[in-house]
């Protein structure tokens, strides 16, 4: 998922080569921030970090929705075919 110069994905090796640094945000299912990891490199301005967190919160909602849907579909298949 891209938004201007912000990349919110699981980067490939090529993506990592093009990036100027990395920051990892971990959010809980309710969208609360669990941890931030920023190894080395330059510091991140607080306004950019706030933007990263806002984007991650939107993404966590989308990802969790997809996971819940997949689990429900699998359960339906298991129940249908007695697996």
UniProtKB/TrEMBL annotation:
<feature type="domain" description="Exoribonuclease phosphorolytic">
    <location>
        <begin position="8"/>
        <end position="58"/>
    </location>
</feature>
<protein>
    <submittedName>
        <fullName>Exosome complex component RRP43</fullName>
    </submittedName>
</protein>
<dbReference type="InterPro" id="IPR015847">
    <property type="entry name" value="ExoRNase_PH_dom2"/>
</dbReference>
<dbReference type="Pfam" id="PF03725">
    <property type="entry name" value="RNase_PH_C"/>
</dbReference>
<dbReference type="InterPro" id="IPR027408">
    <property type="entry name" value="PNPase/RNase_PH_dom_sf"/>
</dbReference>
<feature type="region of interest" description="Disordered">
    <location>
        <begin position="1"/>
        <end position="20"/>
    </location>
</feature>
<dbReference type="InterPro" id="IPR036345">
    <property type="entry name" value="ExoRNase_PH_dom2_sf"/>
</dbReference>
């Amino acid at each position: 998922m891209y938004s201007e110069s912000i990349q919110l994905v699981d980067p490939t090796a090529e993506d990592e080569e093009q990036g100027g640094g990395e920051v990892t945000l971990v959010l809980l299912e309710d969208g609360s921030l669990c941890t931030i990891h920023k190894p080395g490199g330059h510091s991140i301005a607080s306004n950019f970090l706030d933007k990263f967190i806002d984007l991650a919160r939107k993404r966590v909602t989308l990802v969790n929705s997809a996971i819940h849907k997949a689990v429900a579909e699998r359960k339906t298949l298991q129940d249908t075919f007695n697996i």
